[in-house]
Amino acid sequence: MRILRKLGFNLFTWILVLLVAFPLVWMILTSLKPQTELFRIPPTWLPETVTFEHYWRLLTETPFLIYFRNSVVLATTTTVFVVVLGAIGAYSLVRFAYRGRETLATLVLFTYLLPSVVLIIPLYLMMVELGLSNTLASLVLAHTTFALPYALWLLRSFMEGVPEDLESAALVDGASRMGAFRDVILPQLLPGIISTALFTFILSWNEYLYALVLVNSDAVRPLTTGVMTMLISAFNIEWSLLMAASVMMSLPLIVVFAFLQSYLTRGFGAGAVKG
Amino acid sequence: MATAAHAGHRLERRYARLGVFLIAPTIVVFSLVIVYPLLAAIYLSFFSVYTPTLEGEFTGADNYIRLLTNAAFWNSLITTLIWTVGTLSLQIVFGVGMALLLHQNLWFRSLARSLVLFPYFVSTVVAVLVWRWLFNDLYGAINHGLMQLGIMDMPLDWLGTMPNAMIGVILVGAWKYFPFVVIAVLARLQTIPEHLYEAAKIDGAGPIARFFDVTLPQLRSVLVVIILLRAIWDFKEFDLIYLLTGGGPVTSTQTLSLLVYQEAFALNEMGQAAAYSIGMMLVMLVFMLVYIRRTAREA
Amino acid sequence: MAEVVLKDIRKEFGTFVALERLNVAINAGEFVALLGPSGCGKSTTLRMLAGLDFPTAGEISIDGRVVNDVAPGKRDIAMVFQSYALYPHMTVAQNIAYPLKKRGVARPERDAAVAKTATLLQLEPLLNRKPRQLSGGQQQRVALGRALVREPKVFLLDEPLSNLDAKLRSYMRAELIELHRRIGKTMVYVTHDQLEAMTMADRIAVMHDGRLQQFDEPEIIYNQPANRFVAGFIGTPSMNQLEGAIAGSSFVINGEQVPINRALYEQALKDGPVVLGIRPENVSLSGGSLPATVRLVENAGHEQIVTVEIPGGHRLLAREASGQRPSVGQTCQIGFDADFIHLFQPGENGSRFETTGQAHVIPMQAQRSASDES
Amino acid sequence: MTLNRFMSTGVRRRSVLGGMAAVGAAAAMPRRIRAQETITLRWWSPQSSPEQLAAYETQMRNFEAQHENVQVVFERTSDEGYAPQLAAAFASGDVPNIVTHLPSFAVSDYWSAGLLEPFNDVIDMVGPENYYEGANQIYEIDPGVYAGTGIGNSAANMLWLRTDLMEQAGIDEAPRTWDQLRDAVSRMQGGGIFGAPLPYGRNSMTSLIFIGVIHQAGGQVFSPDLQVAIDSDETRNALEFYRSMREYCPPGATNYSWGESLTAFVSGATATGIYTGRVLINVANQNPGIADYIDCVLYPTVSEDVPAWTFNDFPSVFIPRQASNMDVTKQFAAFLFDPEGYIQQLHAAPGHVLPVLWTISENPEYLDNPIIERYTPQVDLMAAAAAEGYNLGWESQGHQPNVKAGEIINSNVISEMVQRVVLNDENVDQVLSDTSSRLEEIMGS
Q: From A44's CA, which of A224, B18, B251, D428 has a CA 20 to 30 Å away?
């Protein structure tokens, strides 16, 4: 009886899980079908012939790899930039006393409310002023508009979780404030930093609107807009290439996710729970 | 109260200066990429501005008067609310449910967790593409799956007519974002002490009573935060809806973000767009403050 | 060896005044306990000594040097935290070596110093472990080691024993006394546990509500508490305090008279309201004049604590040697040992009327053994 | 005080917007650094199929070979994305040197805002005598000055037919009127094949195609002097026709735009199609099985009395006024019409973009292409149709150029009208009056 119940529970849960995962499975299956099989009515549930030609075409005939490189550079730079700023900013907000600190923290929350569409034109003008238009740097700066508040907020709750005594001990032991930050706080903050870095990376990797407006050359275009512009046009929608591109766009996230899943959960644990 | 006459302040002041120094880069970046554009947007909202040239006339509150009197803003606001409430409640219900299931002793639990959390991490572009392909009228798996199962006999137009389009968008939004709820709830579930359940069991509570009497109160603090965060994000969601339906049919899925985009870049009315976006922010602010006050009072 | 002086210290947190006009002068080599209930300002005081908090006004000096503007690391102090604050990502050896490293001590000397400290505290087998692999007592010893290794002028200890179980605590207490005797450094020890303060300190600074109540040797604190707060805070069970009045040479409560040694107070005492304080061990259950009813008897083996109620509903505690056990409900005539009666000004924190003689001082030894058992 | 005066100098405008931030620092920073010796020209286009890209590559390399120190880079934009991208570019002054293949009404829109460089020099370099008669008329918004020129013509609403399916259904003649079309599609629909892939989406294609349908009903959106004239019986008729076609279109047609519509016909899912000559190469590449059974005719009208109205979006070339290195830019613009590269560009999708120069149409190299050879009558038909084509920016010979056409298309006013009537079944009178007032609002803004 108990076995049956267990079996039932597992079956039920796994069906749900597979339903959730189905779009991703379908994405992979579609990307493996030859073009002719794609428009079969009704569709074939499993590919009759498996082909990697779409992947091959993407890699050899399109700027996919350039977009990919751009996305990697963009997401990595954004992540490093935001996490460094966020970590020292959070240190300041949590462990220092000065006037206006609370107000600042509230303002950070307020910046969540800003929709990207509001900021985009002034941002673009500024990028031109700074001589950054049509560069990855402009996207890095633009991505900080949403990534930095989030990172700061996450890191702040992580920072609050590092016992104050540790820093005090380091100070008494002869460290300066920054010395204590480096020797004692950073190592303690590491899981938080990793998790924040992951979230930032994901946000940046997936961003669409800024990338659409702020850059316009294949040399600096990231994957999101690159793939859309390249494969959806007035003359064709290359579903098979789109699905292959989708799979490859998600690959780095799969890899990162597989290795660092526990950090992500921890990040939510600290960030979301403590608010 | 801290005057220079007091002894013992130099070190404190030095620390305070260091603190300010450390937050300074963040403040600079914030001013540069958030505060300044925001002020510029507010400034623009008092002009009638042609987007490509940013030239135009000062029109005072005209844009705001049009916002108040024109149906466009209010219709989009209602659409936005329907979308937000719809997708958010699905996210919460499904997210909490899935978290409870994944908290149990499941076969291959970590694989199941990875699969469930994955939609949150794929790009919106990818998610939209996959779903548009699934929803495709001629070759889509959903229509044919449902037809093969005998649930319907004609392909359904998922994204082109109402109410299907709104349902479709809400469904995809829920699919994309419910893992966020799962992760947060899962993290919290792991911290609920087992003895609470044992106590409830001894008191004769069944699984359902245990959920409502033990689990839910323990999840309250998390849910308060997640609902706030997700509500804000859903409210200003652009990519997903823009790429999925573009706001159609007619304007049935044109949320405020899309309205702003359309006004700014299709109609080249930057000033009006800025006014809409300021209005949108004010609405969000009001909702947020009410929400925070209410949940704070209940807590 | 260094003396530590706190002069006219005031500390505000926003509008809340945490410390007011605090003056404490600690002699070189002295072991001083800062004692008080939580929130009394003792930890803030210690953190200000360490340079982790800043006085709103006043002056702190260590070894004759004003250190208000000196960073913690340059004050030549060491501190042991209640949480131990061991660096979780470092091994025991790295933890102990950290203060030396920060002071630029060369590697070989550092290793030697760590080895020496480890020997002193019997930490050798643990040197390569991480803090989380240690028991509470072991962590405590590592924290001590980290403080000791540098041989600072002053040790600051913030409730270092409060996270240990009772048995280990009493062991570590002895260890600390021994340690202080051996190294002879100035130590400032914050605790809320009066027993720790009484047993370890050369002098105790009793604090309450941000003010210093009394700063003196344990015997004097015990036998001549400065005010009702100190009287009530020191000693277990605490001193009985009865509100009544002086009439002639007697203390009157509810119309009953209790004779007092009027001569001892003659300069200060006038007729009028007053609070009488008497420790439980100076209350006898028979042979007195105050009628009382036994309400509760708690047997602790070699002694028993008896709660009695006198007319007017006041309850008193009496400490009796084991033997004959009074029964609940029994009535008796209780009496106070007149030599040990304290008289306080009325009011919540009324100060004690000074006696003119020292007649009622009892040997410390007896006190210690009595309180240890509690 | 007007913002215009405030901002008109550009520098002043930026200082207004920039003053709020730390622009002191920004001003001190070096502007975009251009190496002295190398000039970079940026070329934008939404047309970027692999074959077209290859052709562009040839043109750019050839030009670079002739001009030392010049480098041309191609940057792709998209039909839905060019508006915000160009808006941002114009607003910042960081513009591309040359933009091709945008519809003519986008040109007139930007021209009227004073954003474009007059094109007369380039047209002179290409040789006005080489153009088809009147080919540049649509760009002559201000008398004597051209805002741009065409890089090609398109006949975007050709009716594509599957002759094999017609035969099966017993239809021997291509439909000429709406009734014949309805009859034909209803007979060909079945067996998983739908009749037509008309767009009902909230997008530019629906607007553009439906404007054609209004004209095919004998109506017009604006009167020749640009008064709103959409609230007419002809429009009601057109809406009625469009509604009646819904049942012959795939369910997802409510979201169709160019790509979906094209793919539906090419993949064989619909019996008729509505598109340019791009169909030819897509069929050859993706579904060669039906290559022998495709044909195209002008899209039917309400009756034989009403002439066909071909939608030509007039793929254009223009140069932003703020573009750098104007001389070289103009040379490059003219060089785009150099036969070798131009022909390769046209061959990238034969019949899709049709030449604007008669000298090219008659060039043997242009005619030497398997698809053009195979479908000569169709290509000729499209060329003729396109030459007489119009669009919302220029509804007929008699119409004044409409500089607001781009905004009208982008605002989706027309496609929303279609959706409200066809999908939501709303009251036609109400919808038309709403649409009229919205059009007037846009015209007045």
A: A224
Chains C vs D: touching, with 3+ CB pairs under 8 Å?
Answer: no
User: Alpha helix (H) ranges present in B104-163?
Assistant: 109-121, 124-135, 141-148
Q: How many domains does chain D have?
A: 2
Residues D277-285, mean pLDDT to the nearest whole number = 89
- pLDDT, greater one: D310 or D21: D310
Rounded mean pLDDT, B236-240? 90
Answer yes or no: do D22 and B31 touch at CB < 8 A.
yes
D297 and D201 within one domain: yes
Chain centre distance of CA D112: 19
Q: What is the model's pLDDT at position B41?
A: 87
Nearest Cα residue in chain D from A61 = D50
SS3 at position D274: strand
CATH of residue D266: 3.40.190.10
Determine the pLDDT at residue A264.
66
| Cβ-based burial of D133 (10 A; exposed 0-12, middle 13-18, buried ≥19) | exposed
Q: Of C33-42, C79-88, C256-265, D356-365, give the lowest mean pLDDT range.
A: C256-265
Q: Is there a single domain that holds both residue D211 and residue D114?
A: no
Mean pLDDT of chain C: 86
Which helix (H) or strand (E) segment holds residue A73: the answer is: helix A64-95
Last residue of a domain, one of D350, D371, D387: D387
3-state secondary structure of C257: strand
Element (H, E) at B71: helix B71-103
For residue A40, which amino acid is it? Answer: R
Q: Is residue D394 part of a domain?
A: no
Contact list in A for residue D79 (CB cut-off 8 A) is: 233-234
Residue type, D62: N
- Domains by residue range for chain A, with CATH: 1-51 (no CATH), 55-274 (1.10.3720.10)
Q: In this structure, are D79 and D191 located in the same domain?
A: no
Residue D403 lies in a domain: no
Q: What is the pLDDT of residue A235?
A: 65
Comparison of pLDDT for A112 and D41, the residue scoring more: D41
Residue A1 has pLDDT above 90, yes or no: no
Give D136-161 pLDDT, tens digit per residue: 888 888 888 999 999 988 898 999 99
Do D141 and D162 fall within a single domain? no
Kindly give the interhelix angle for D82-92 and D104-112, rounded to the nearest 10 degrees: 30
Among residues C324, C288, C328, the alpha carbon closest in space to that of C308 is found at C328
Q: How many CA atoms lie within 13 A of C2 on its CB side?
A: 21
Range of the domain at D353: 16-153+313-387
Residues 6+ apart with CB under 8 A from D113: B50, B52, B53
Q: What are phi and psi of D338, to 5 degrees?
A: -60, 125
Q: Is the pLDDT of residue D16 over 60?
A: no
Interface probe for D, chosen from B27, B31, B50 (most Cβ of D below 10 Å), is B50
C-alpha A126/C-alpha A114 separation (Å) is 18
DSSP string, C283-348: EESSSSSEEEEEEEEEE-SSEEEEEEE-TTS-EEEEEEESSSPPPTT-EEEEEE-GGG-EEE-SST
Residue D234 lies in a domain: yes
Q: Where are the alpha helices (DSSP H) in C184-299?
A: 194-200, 218-223, 228-233
Do residues D221 and D356 both lie within one domain?
A: no
Selected residues 259-318 of chain D with any CB under 8 Å from a CB in chain A: 259-260, 262-263, 267-269, 278, 282, 286
If you average pLDDT over residues D74-101, what whole number do you get? 85
Could you report the predicted ipTM of this complex, rounded to two decimals?
Answer: 0.79
Q: Residue B44: pLDDT band by 50, 70, 90 thresholds? A: confident
Taking contacts as CB-CB distances below 8 angstroms, the residues of chain B near A104 are 23, 27
Q: Are residues D286 and D425 in the same domain?
A: yes
Residue D406 within a domain:
no
